[in-house]
Amino acid sequence: MSNRIARQSSKTDAAGPSIETKEALRLLQNYEETRQGWFWSTDKDGNLTYVTESVAQILDKKSIELIGTPFTQLFVDTQQSDENQRTLPFLLTKRSKFLELQLQAATSNDDVRWWEVSGSPQFDHFGEFSGYRGSGKDITSQRQSAQDTAQLAMFDSLTGLANRAQMSKKLDATLSTFQQQKRTCSMMLLDLDHFKTVNDTMGHPAGDMLLKQVAKRLLKAVDDAGEVGRIGGDEFQILLPDWEDRGKLGELANTIISSLSQPYTVEGSRCIIGASIGIAISPFDGLSSDDLIRSSDLALYAAKGSGRGRFQFFARDLQQAAEDRKILEDDLRDALSREEISLHYQPVVNAKNNTVTGFEALMRWNHRERGPVSPAIFIPIAEDANLIGPLGEWALQRACADAVKWPGNVRIAVNVSPIQFADARLPEVVKKALKSTGLAPARLELEITESVFLAETDETDDMFKALKDIGVRLALDDFGTGYSSLSYLQTAPFDKIKIDQSFVRGATEPDSRNGAIIAAIVALANALDMETTAEGIEALDELEWIRELSVSHVQGYVYSMPVKDEDVHKRFETGDWIIMPEGPAKQRSDRNSMFRKVKLIHENSCYDVMIRNLSKTGALIEGLVDVPVGTKFVLDFGDGQIAVSTVRRSMGQQQGIEFEQRLVDDGNGGLCTRTRISPYLIAAAGMEVPNMSADFYAKKRDDWQHKSIPSFYTTDSWKAG
Ligand code: C2E
Ligand code: MG
Ligand code: MG
Fold it and tell me: Which ligand has the shortest distance to the CA of 346?
């Protein structure tokens, strides 16, 4: 257009503007007035000789005031702006033509305006440069929507967190630079527990509001340590550059889990969810982003499998564990029909007079190849695989059928999974079991865990009412392991509170408040006319202490292990069953007794030793003979986990050793070293950066060992010699 004006105007001199030219001018004027675009021209020094009025208005000026000022002053200061703004003066001095430069208008207020500007240098008859002519148009709204689209492509619209695509870009970029710089990077994969239940019972809009609150809490917990993203429904990812200390990672994971497990208020109702976290660390658990994601995914799967509300570090044997779990799930499908499932009954004893008042039915699975599988393993599998319904129904039926043959007032307690509790058919299932066996409803007790209170809904209240209407008793199981809120005790019609063994066990630790809490629970239970049962009592000192706290009933090895139905009958043949408590005088310390083979490295020699017990600060090892106190060596737990150790006590073939650096929780009841030997270090020693195969560290360890004369006898060579 500007070229056209230039050409046309050059023809006007003598005869005045032609009709054609006048028409063109009118069109252009029209174009300017509708604000679709604007025109400008300068002299050879770059000062404006013409500019459309609308441009001046945007800059809060009159166009006449702009004439004679530098063209570049129409735009934001060239120093602080983007690339285009800097190139404009350069193009002008070079007298180059430019097309569609995006420039920000130098508005006097906060109103951000963008123009797209084109210009061509003009030359007179003698070929001398005479200035510029050009056009511009406002592109503020296009730029905004382009930015919005970019934003949408990178961020999750619900929570405002980075989305999957953005996170994976970040991860790729971080890992590839970090690999060159030999830095570490951790990845947490987080999945909400029970989110689906809340979403289903309270509705999707409520679910969305919950997710927003989750995102807020996550950002607060992670702060500026890393990047948080939402990568799907209730899955989040946290990228933590330069994090590798598993002690610190475990602490952060616990902070996140406890923050997300606090109650939420959504649309005026209260609800509770939890979170599980899988953690993988590059380069140890994967060099590429695919590997790191796969590792954190496996760790998350394991965390969920071992009871939810936990974190879990990736470990090489998790792959095997995941496969095992899949096989168990398949086998569990026909365990009932193969008659591999049975019930054992553990006595519940009146703590005052040692009389058995009832039993808890505990499910047992005798796997055809593996032998007994713990319910702590197969019940969660059954819950995930939709098998808990039939198994639970079978247990109710079986337990009622057995109990009806026991003496008159002895009660039977049956565990009910939260999944059964959420199924509206449960009251019918209970009625059917009672009716077909003839057991009096008052003799049946259903054990329910706190997780049924996840979402405060009418359905929960209705279920409680329907069960109470049948006349069965209700017990709150595993108190002290979950949210431990006393508020629902007032509204839910429980007849009994069962205090979990971990809570009892914790109470004997020096500065534990559990004792005071148990006393408060007992007082509350008495006031509300509920019984209390302490679970998992093993030692006589624990029993004594529980009695002092006035807990009414006890269930634990100190009285009896779970027994078979036949044994229950035998014991009752002589009237009441009274059990004298028996057990160790004191609860043993929490040192983990174990038999675990590890490598011990001392001056270029490598020995096999057995760990007999392990704590955060040290271990008892077995396998070497007469090692002097003060000897230093390295324990190699595998997978790059090494602990520098000093012998503190030496007793023939056993040594008590102390670690230079404390071990940390592995999130799964075990311990691990804070840090591992980096594959980068190994690479620095002249070996290739590994593709981390399972036996990578084992191979490297063998490579390091130059065989020399060992300093110690091993128990094998000692016995042989
Ligand atoms: P729970 O309902 O809390 O059951 C008590 C657990 O503590 C049982 O473990 C019992 O054997 C164990 N226990 C009792 N006294 C002692 C003691 O003195 N020391 C120790 N260390 N443990 C003791 P078990 O049989 O392995 O069951 C584990 C969990 O599996 C149960 O915890 C329950 O949540 C679940 N479960 C078992 N049977 C069923 C069932 O039929 N249905 C459902 N839904 N869950 C079941
Ligand atoms: Mg129970
Ligand atoms: Mg329990």
Answer: 1
